[in-house]
Design goal:
This protein is mainly beta. The chain folds into 3 domains: about 1-60, SH3 type barrels (Roll), CATH 2.30.30; about 65-125, Nucleic acid-binding proteins (OB fold (Dihydrolipoamide Acetyltransferase, E2P), Beta Barrel), CATH 2.40.50; about 130-185, OB fold (Dihydrolipoamide Acetyltransferase, E2P), CATH 2.40.50.140. The protein is about 0% helix and about 50% strand. It is built from 1 helix and 16 strands. The protein has one helix at about 95-100, and strands spanning about 1-5, 10-15, 20-30, 35-45, 50-55, 60, 65-75, 80-85, 90-95, 110-115, 120-125, 130-135, 150-155, 160-165, 170-175, 180-185. Strands 1-6-2-3-4-5 form a 6-stranded antiparallel beta sheet, with no helix packed on it. Strands 9-8-7-10-11 form a 5-stranded antiparallel beta sheet. A 5-stranded antiparallel beta sheet has the order 14-13-12-15-16, with no helix packed on it. Strand 13 (about 150-155) and strand 14 form a beta hairpin. The termini are far apart.
Length: about 190
């Protein structure tokens, strides 16, 4: 058993006979009243996502998962194929199981695949950051600094990220997978 205040993105728990994956967990203190945990949760089986509020002291049963290193190969329609790097077994995962993680999938990215005891795929865990190329953004603003207001940029996977004003089309950026936020330019990018 674990308290709701200790739940983090990617954790899986059992509730009412269902496996639930934590997509987001925020500690929230309303102006009046007690602190609550606001969470986005996904039913692993149905793919349904719900927003739920829990008391921080509420307890849930964490589910033990087996993790396997896997490489993302390709996506076809609503199915995404991963390969176990040790056994070369391939696994297909539906878009419903992946949710918003789909927008961070880059060819050959390494992920942790989560399996239940009966070897069913629950989902994946992304690395903390990924490198992506800017597909489209507004033109560079001369003299722009990091402290500027920023502008939206569409990445090669369709993910939209707020980036500094000096970022141009075609630049490779480091994007955080937790919140989908801009971290920095990729090291290989000439400055």
């Amino acid at each position: 058993m674990v308290q709701a205040i200790n739940l983090k993105k990617g954790m899986i728990f059992s509730q009412d006979g269902k496996l639930i994956k934590v997509l987001k967990a925020n500690h929230h203190k309303p102006g009046k009243g007690n602190t609550v945990m606001q969470m986005d949760l996904r039913d692993v089986k149905s793919g349904a996502v719900v927003h739920k509020t829990m008391r921080p002291t509420e307890k849930v049963d964490l589910v033990e998962v087996t993790k396997k290193k896997a490489q993302y190969l390709y996506g076809e329609g609503d199915t995404y194929t991963f390969m176990d790097t040790d056994t070369y077994d391939q696994y297909e995962v539906s878009a419903d199981q992946l949710g918003d993680d789909v927008k961070f999938l880059m060819p050959n990215i390494m992920v942790d695949m989560d399996f239940t005891d009966d070897n069913k795929i629950i989902g994946i865990e992304l690395p903390s950051t990924v490198e992506m190329t800017v597909k489209e953004t507004q033109p560079e603003i001369k003299g722009a600094t990091v402290a500027g207001g920023g502008k939206p940029a569409t990445m090669e996977t369709g993910l939209v990220v707020q980036v500094p004003d000096f970022i141009k089309n075609g630049e490779k950026l480091v994007i955080g997978t937790e919140n989908g936020d801009y971290k920095s330019r990729a090291d290989s990018q000439p400055r």
